[in-house]
Amino acid sequence: MADRSRLALAAAPVHVSAQRRPAAGELHSALINGTRALHHDGNLVASREWFDRAFEAAEREHDGPGQALAAVGYGGLWVHEHRSVATRALTESRLRRALTLVDDDSPLAARLRARLAAEADYREGAHGRVFAAVEHARRLQDPVALAEALSLAHHCVMGPHQAHLRTRLVEELIETSLRTGRRGDLLVGLLWRTSDLLLAADSHAERSLRELQAMLQNQPHAAVGFIVQAMEVMRTIRSGDLAAAEEHANACAKTGQAVGDVDSIGWFGAHMITINWYRGNLAELIPTLRELVNSPLLSTVDSSHLAALAVAAASAGDERLARGSLARLEGASWHQLPMTSSWLATMHGVIEAANLLGDTRTAAAAYDQLRPFAHLPIMASMGIACFGSAEHALGVAALTMGRDDQAVAHLEVAVHANHALQHWPAALLSRARLAEVLWRQGEHTRAHELLTLAREEAERLAMALPRSVEHIAQRPVTAVGRAAGVLSCERRGLRWHLRLGDHLAVLDGSKGMIYLASLIANPGFEISAVELAAGPGTAAESVNGSLTAGSSQPVLDEAAKRAYKARLSQLDDAIEEHEANNDLVRAERARAERSWLIEELAAVTGLGGRTRNFADAAERARISVGKAIRRAIAQVTAVDPVIGDHLRSYVRTGMRCCYMPR
């Protein structure tokens, strides 16, 4: 594939060209050329070459300030530019060595410390050290030291919960850039502003992007221009022109390679993941993604490609690879996954993979994590890839958990939000998934109308509808329900024959089919799960005997209730403390745990807070019968989707089950 070869090209390391080393008198020239290449031209390759020469020359001349300037310049414009272990060690060792050679209170020392602090904070998902470096630069009142510290600090607060921190940094950076005399500082400030507006779905994002593009048109800056080009690929994907987006993504990867931006491989991967996701052929990227997730050139805090691998594997039916990728992402807990610039895209992938796998536990965990950010678009990095509104991902998670009403609410908002983003592929998918839930709820007319629109739009955009809705969109709404005839179920030997109008499904025997047969034979009547589990001929016993006798043991004993209440009190204190310390991540996680505990207590208490008793046999029957019926319906759907849809629409499970055709 063309995209795989381009990924291989983008993965090629950038080598410093072998040229003669400078003589002692060339230090000044190397520093000037390096500074111009970095801050005026944005040529990262050339600037590294010049600053590498300058550092070696300064070492020979025993020039401490020269080594400091060269070490700072070699670090580059962005944090984490040097990804391999060797180059990172070289860069940071030079910074530390230079720090011992300059006045501890000088602006040069402040610049060295800011770079070291930012590199450490970025890898750890923190920002305390670099923010302290910003404050120190403010006190020094050196504009260059302050501009660099502000931009470095911005890298470390790219999580969806840190927008308020980024806004203050950008405003100060743009103001400071007017005093540094370096053109690149203003461009970087405007770039960060544009990125922040895109991440927030701000209506002024396009205006900011246009202003930045006008400045670059008058006088190019390669490093900033590459990122703007990557943003334009994202916008082309939003427009729905996926063929043009692929061409632009390939061109953008070449630009990034020429500029020397180490993110060129990861961003090209993000572009191709997004394009192939909307085309419906993400599974084709599995070989490429297997290699990409282990590339040393990826950012150390970027997990989005691993999430994409989980989705691709689940789409291809490789359950082992999909579940393995999710387990690798989860680690000890989803709460420990750092909230970085790729976190939203990662959670989107986690939810889509969980949906394909039917993994309700993962879907529930991801839902709780993502819910505070429902108002945001699912963006990657600096706005270079977009999967539409987070409401869509929440809707898919709710759908996976079987919370259809919640799913409808989220997906209806997602359709509107994606229209506001002018993200037409995302709006199409949100409309299709909304139709899927409505169809499952029995609202066939509205669902069919939505799917008809989605199918027409998909053809226009050369997109694929989700597999779960394709068969619904291809037939008239009258193909289900009473208009299609009366559902009958008959056992012939070891097989069951289900007939609905002209449709016939023949299936092997199973517990689920036995339960379905009992429900279909008694349309409109509720049958307890216990009675279904007990089987024919045991109804009286199941109603009056031990099978329905609930245990008198409470779901929660008094000690457990006291522990729950104590934990709620601790969480209240923790929320107050985290908010006072402006630690919004921990505060939100504490609130999520508190909400869960309250829901758990509500689920096991009756009126007035009295603890409910746990009916052991009844609860076990509810779970086992429900699972068996759902498995049987899935098997029917695989044989005949029309009959499967009919059963999904009209069969209800729970403590009491029924087949209620309308």
Architecture blueprint of SSEs:
Blueprint: H1 2-11, H2 27-41, H3 44-61, H4 64-75, H5 85-99, H6 107-124, H7 128-140, H8 143-155, H9 163-180, H10 183-199, H11 205-218, H12 222-239, H13 242-259, H14 264-279, H15 286-292, H16 304-316, H17 319-330, H18 343-357, H19 360-370, E1 377-380, E2 385-389, H20 390-401, H21 404-421, H22 424-440, H23 444-461, H24 467-473, E3 488-492, E4 495-500, E5 503-508, H25 511-520, E6 527-528, H26 529-534, H27 539-544, H28 558-580, H29 584-603, H30 616-639, H31 641-650, E7 651-652, E8 656-659
Antiparallel strand pairs: 1-2, 3-4, 4-5, 6-8, 7-8
- Low-pLDDT sequence parts: 1-24, 477-484, 537-553
What share of the residues does DSSP label as strand, in percent?
5-15%
Question: What number of domains?
Answer: 4
CATH top level of the largest domain?
Mainly Alpha
* Gyration radius, rounded: 30 Å
Span of the ends, CA to CA:
50 Å
Q: How do the strands of the widest beta sheet line up side by side?
A: 3-4-5
Q: Describe the global form.
A: elongated
Largest sheet: 3 strands, antiparallel
CATH topology of the largest domain: Serine Threonine Protein Phosphatase 5, Tetratricopeptide repeat
Could you give the count of β-strands? 8
For the residues shown, what is the average pLDDT? 86
CATH architecture of the largest domain: Alpha Horseshoe
Number of helices: 31
**What level of helicity do the residues show?**
55-70%
- Structural class by SSE content: mainly alpha
